[in-house]
Amino acid sequence: MGKKKVLIVTQEMEPYTNLSIVSKIARELPNHITKEGMDIRILMPRFGTINERRHRLHEVVRLSGMNIIVDEDDYPLIIKVASLPGARLQVYFLDNDEFFRRKQIFKDKDDNIFQDNTERMVFFCKGVMETVRKFGWPPDIIHCHGWMTSLIPLYLKKAYKDDPIFRNAKLIYSIYESPFEKELEDRFLEKASINNLEEGDLKSYLNGEGLDLHLGALKYADASILGDPGLEDDEKLLELLKSQAAPYHMPQSENLEEVVAGYMDFYNELTDETVPE
């Protein structure tokens, strides 16, 4: 059997975006994945805050040129790549001038939420699926980090369920804070619908009171991780996590390296490749 293939999909990552628990974990993970002898690829948005010259981003022409349809409009998808400092790994960036040229990430300079964050999320999530197809690289594990990746579990299990590239993929959704749900609600079901998704598929993201990205993502994920230890006292979230039939992992340490090392055991358990004691 060849190397296990792990796809990391993250909305943030050091050193490209400001420090956050998402960006820290996404940066630490590749070290452990490569130590385990796994093959890894990393996808994230090319936010306008990322300095292309400093980080030496350049376009991957063979991967670019696709158009992604969002809410009946076409948007060109440009793929860029850079070498991750301190590691022999490449990070792939999904770019589009309409969504990612601005010099802020989720809010403008006056701290107002961008009104098109839903469209940006849909573009990114569908763009991830199409980019992996273009790689021709079938992942064994897809590990999603951040609310901006929360549609990928649905897309994987419904819109791309018959695609051979994703046939054996196990999807892990890491839970972090999702602070913009109220601002994303306007026509969410319509905007997030791609390919031939049915309205009932997307209703999993509604909890009766409004939009709940974690609820929808957990319904379709094969497993989940409490990515942000700061959420361990959120009783409503923990109840949601434990109510799912899928396995979940809660780190038992506050040390970042130990936390991420624990993910490796969870990866192996999920793919049934742990060595019997």
Automatic annotation (TrEMBL):
Keyword Secreted found: no
> Which Gene3D superfamilies does the annotation name?
Glycogen Phosphorylase B
As recorded in UniProt, its EC number(s) are: 2.4.1.21
**Catalytic reaction equation(s):** [(1->4)-alpha-D-glucosyl](n) + ADP-alpha-D-glucose = [(1->4)-alpha-D-glucosyl](n+1) + ADP + H(+)
The Starch synthase catalytic domain sits at 5-225
Q: Which GO terms describe its molecular function?
A: alpha-1,4-glucan glucosyltransferase (ADP-glucose donor) activity
InterPro entries, per the entry: Starch_synth_cat_dom
Q: Keyword Transferase on this protein?
A: yes
Top-level taxon of the source organism: Bacteria
Task: Tell me what this protein is called.
Answer: starch synthase
